[in-house]
Amino acid sequence: MKKILDLISSRMEEAFLACGYEARYARVVLSNRPDLCEYQCNGAMAAAKAYKKKPIDIAGEVVEYLTGGRDAGAGGDGKSTVMFSQTDAVMPGFINLRLNGSFLADYLNGMQKEQKLGLEEPGCGETVIVDYGGANVAKPLHVGHLRSAVIGESIRRMGAYLGYHMIGDVHLGDWGLQMGLIIEELRERKPDLVYFKEHYEGEYPAKAPFTIGELEDIYPCASAKSKKDESFKERAQRATLRLQGGYAPYVAVWKHIMAVSLADLKKNYGNLDVHFDLWKGESDAGPYIPWLLSDLQEKGLARESEGALVVDIAEESDPKELPPCIVQKSDGAALYATTDLGTMLEREKLYQPKRYIYIADKRQELHYTQIFRVAKKAGYVPKETRMDYIGFGTMNGKDGKPFKTRDGGVMRLEQLIADIEEAVYARIQENRGVLEEGPEAEGSGTGMEMTEEEARKTAKRIGLAALKYGDLSNQAAKDYVFDLDRFTSFTGNTGPYILYTVVRIQSILRNYQESGGNAGDAGILPAEGSAERELMLELTRYNEVMETAFAELAPHKICQYVYELANAFSGFYRDNKILAQEDAARQKGWIRLITLVRDVLTAGIGVLGFEAPERM
RNA sequence: GCGUCUGUAGCUCAGUGGAUAGAGCAAUGGCCUCCGGAGCCAUGUGCGGAGGUUCGAUUCCUCUCAGACGCACCA
Question: Which nucleotides along chain B are within 7 A of a protein C-beta?
Fold first, then answer.
């Protein structure tokens, strides 16, 4: 289905053209003065100069055309409805519009018949690689990984919903210095392992010589040691180099580290309801690196500098010369940029994406600028391929500083999720308590009874919504304050509030069905009340919002929309007693209307990465 | 030093080249014989500052102040 703004705009274009003005002045936008109109066109003022006329005269001519008895709907289907109920030219040159109620109702009826509620699929199956997650092997996920996972998952879902072939890749950190650090630390702890015997010729054990718990202790320990102990660091660097060179015993250890760690990471991302199509890592770029380095040199792009191999990426238009991109360390080891470029080579070979979207901390912006330029300069990625980088801000505590545990440490993601679930669970218990103490405690049939197990499960689902909505409702690029109490609140602009709205609609629909109601494929009728009309207008924005949000890679726009829609529903719910409505046709229309609201909300939170429970 | 990003209500955040800049939370005062009150209504404060472009700027440009971050062998 066409977007409602496009339908209105094309009607206006017709009018502008008919009056002798360029179509580009006809663009219609949502009104910012709902008291005056629903939509507005400001083109007359912009056109005034070009045509040397007073804006109000231009607006007047256009309105004259529209009201000249030829106001028709998008039509062509024989049952076209008049589009506007109001067309006013207002000083200094605004054209104020309101939709005809039948046109609006028709639009919604169209939406509910369509596959994706009237959403078109501009993606057309184009392949897009989304690189997010960025977990490091052998290190537990912590709050620093949250944003990449949550934002990336949402972007991937948005794109998929719009018909793109989205490929999400976790791109593990599994090939850099941290692996050398772990290997060296392991050697110090368990020097007798066969991997550290120089002339060992036998098979390597199938069982990992450590648990995930040990592994998680090894890395921070080794990392701290390398900062104090220079010789330890050198040994770790050597181990890294040997691993990258394919030294069999280290590769064997590395495989153990990978297996143990990956199982744990999959579990944790699963708890976040974050999914990846590919579990590739930096190591997968390994095979491409020798060719990459020699190719960069053959093309004359790479040069030696202070022992390292670098590629200049500065361009004339740069305000300041950007530092070159280091592709090989002076000790010969690969680093961040090298593996990222190697990864591109693999992705081009296997998937030929039309677009890349990288989601990483905004502090990495320079790095991405560098590798994007190298990739384009060397022709590894076609010129026309879009390469986007979303740099997200820091998650801060209430003090405005990066989020920490009480003792100042880095909080594990598991802990954060557990805290949120606990807070939500407490709220659920609170509500149950209030219910039981209430004057009419019997209240059975409300469907509010919940077993302990259900309550825990529900708390988990609501907690995830609280967490993700709290994060996604902020612009990605900005730092934001993580406030557990606020995010888990069941009122206000929060994830739980959105879920509550969906649950409440479900409850009404359930009651309606249980009392023998069946709306069948009844049509939504033109609105009678103002809240009803506002709700309907809000619904029409759906496809526009989805497209814009993806075009701008801005999940927060979807948050904003679902919140506004939920609020519009609240207004409608307040003014209209759906189940008490005696006019059967109107009641059916309302049932269809709120069903559509539920479906739109469900689709919206679906791309945000969470879902509503049955009850809460 | 150079560069990037960010400054909007007491707090947390949206927003737009257009007509009166919005939400939530907090505060105050109201509203329930209500399908789930986890709601609704009312009241009050704000675009860091200065110039410029424009018929019109909170939005675009320049300067300035403040904060965060980045500037070659970490990722």
Answer: 2-6, 12-15, 17-20, 23-25, 34-36, 38-41, 55-56, 68-75
The predicted pLDDT at position A76 comes to 38
Of A179, A177, A172, the closest CA to residue A149 belongs to A172
With a cut of 60, say whether residue A451 has pLDDT above it.
yes
Its pTM stands at: 0.93
What counts of helices (H) and strands (E) characterise chain A? 20, 13
- Contacts of A601 by beta carbon, 8 Å cutoff, 6+ apart: A498, A501, A502, A505, A562, A565, A566, A612
- Name the CATH superfamily for A413-608: Isoleucyl-tRNA Synthetase; Domain 1 (1.10.730.10)
Q: Specify the CATH architecture of the domain A4-99.
A: 2-Layer Sandwich (3.30)
**A408-449 confidence digits (pLDDT tens):** 888 999 999 999 999 999 888 877 765 554 444 333 344 456
A136: left (phi over 0), alpha (psi -120 to 50) or beta: beta
ipTM value: 0.94
- β-bridge mates for residue A166, sequence order: A128
By three-state DSSP, how is residue A92 classified? coil
Query: What are the domain boundaries of chain A?
Result: 4-99, 177-271, 413-608
DSSP letter for A317, please.
Answer: T
Q: How far is the CA of A533 from the C1' of B42 (A)?
A: 23
Residue in A431, A432, A488 with CA at minimum distance from that of residue A465: A488
User: What residue type is A89 in one-letter code?
Assistant: A
Strand B and A479 CB separated by under 7 Å: yes
Q: What residues contact residue A293 under an 8 Å CB cut-off, 6+ apart?
A: A302, A309, A327, A328, A338
Q: How far is the CA of A112 from the C1' of B32 (A)?
A: 34
222-261 on A, CB < 7 Å from strand B: 237
Chain A window 134-173: residues with CB closer than 7 Å to nucleic chain B are 134, 136, 173
Q: Is the CB of A580 under 7 A from strand B?
A: yes
Tell me how far CA of residue A433 lies from CA of A72, A425, A429, A447, in angstroms.
Answer: 57, 12, 6, 15
At A463-511, the pLDDT tens digits run 999 999 999 999 999 999 999 999 999 999 999 999 999 999 999 999 9
